[in-house]
Amino acid sequence: MAFTSLLYETADRVATITLNRPERFNAIEQRMPREIREAVETADRDADVHVIVVKGAGKGFCGGYDLKKFAERADADSRGGQEMPWDPTLDFAGMWRNTQDFMSLWRSRKPTIAQVHGAAVAGGSDIALCCDFLIMAEDARIGYPPARVWGVPTPAMWVYRLGPQAAKRLMMTGDLINGREAAEMGLALKAVPAAQLETEVAALVGRLKGVPRNQLMMTKMVVNQAYENMGLATTQLLATFFDGVARHSPEGIWFRERAEEVGFKQAVAERDSGEPIAPHVSKR
Predict the structure, then answer these.
(1) Distance of CA 247 to CAs 77, 92, 94, 146, 250, Å?
(2) Kind and range of the H or E element at 121?
(3) pTM here?
(4) Strands across the sheet containing 190-192
(5) Cβ atoms of 51 and 15 closer than 8 Å
(6) Do residues 157 and 126 touch, judged by C-beta distance below 8 A?
(7) Rounded to whole angstroms, how far apart are CA atoms 121 and 67?
(8) 45, 101, 105, 253: which could join 37 in a potential S-S bond, CB 3.0 to 4.6 Å?
(9) Do 15 and 8 form a contact (C-beta atoms < 8 A)?
(10) Under a CB-based contact definition with an 8 Å cutoff, are residues 260 and 71 in contact?
(11) How far is 7 from 3, CA to CA, in rounded Å?
């Protein structure tokens, strides 16, 4: 199968999915979610594959959706927004499809490992946290900055991995944490020096790939079902709807207009400054 946004290869009972847009920090464009799902389903069908590893080419894992491209576009024909009046069903349909594509990593019958170097931010953290295991370089970063303005993490995996207090902290602040802190919080299984990341992932792969596929599948289904019974699908429905709301709230519209006016980088700096934003929005 030919992919345009990622590389897929297999060797020694392992399928490796490499996000492959290094010139854009592996930013998510229209085809990538669908191709991730297709790659996972290809690995699931392959009786020789026992483990799936997901990593990024170049300097990092994934910088999230290509928001600079979307936010700075003055036309409404983009993922970033619609002309008013906003139709939430269109927004939901697109993002729900992407969420389910990312969740193929969670639903796969085989264990999935996110190997994170550089950064896994915004939508990149969505991809990483849909995997069963997260192993990070100590200096890598993970977080969801658009939660400050203009986004909600649609897979909503933060609370299921961290519990309510830590999840609220990271989702409300949009803070990025490094690999060491992620491991201390239990978000990552391990954090190691960047030079040891491949070796650490290979060690876990080595322990998993010798287990029969049926045993891996049964164990994964037992654990995953506990979270499904806790309402994971319902939480994702709400998160995906709110993601669209966040882009069309008064502050969300201000952010997009500001990005068109002064550029995405400056709009982000103003968003993260701690000062009140959207001065034209009346106090409520």
Answers:
(1) 14, 12, 14, 10, 9
(2) strand 119-121
(3) 0.93
(4) 6-11, 14-19, 51-56, 112-116, 133-137, 190-192
(5) yes
(6) yes
(7) 12
(8) 101
(9) yes
(10) yes
(11) 7
- Encoding tokens for residue 52? 């799936």
Give the pLDDT of the chain (284 residues) as one tens digit per residue.
Answer: 789 999 999 999 999 999 999 999 999 999 999 999 999 999 999 999 999 999 999 999 999 998 766 665 555 444 455 667 889 999 999 999 999 999 999 999 999 999 999 999 999 999 999 999 999 999 999 999 999 999 999 999 999 999 999 999 999 999 999 999 999 999 999 999 999 999 999 999 999 999 999 999 999 999 999 999 999 999 999 999 999 999 999 999 999 889 989 999 999 999 999 888 876 564 54
> From the centroid of its chain, how far is CA 271?
21
Residues paired with residue 116 on neighbouring β-strands, in sequence order? 136
- Kindly report the number of other CB atoms within 10 A of residue 14's CB atom: 22
First to last CA, the chain: 53
Distance CA 30, CA 50 (A): 29
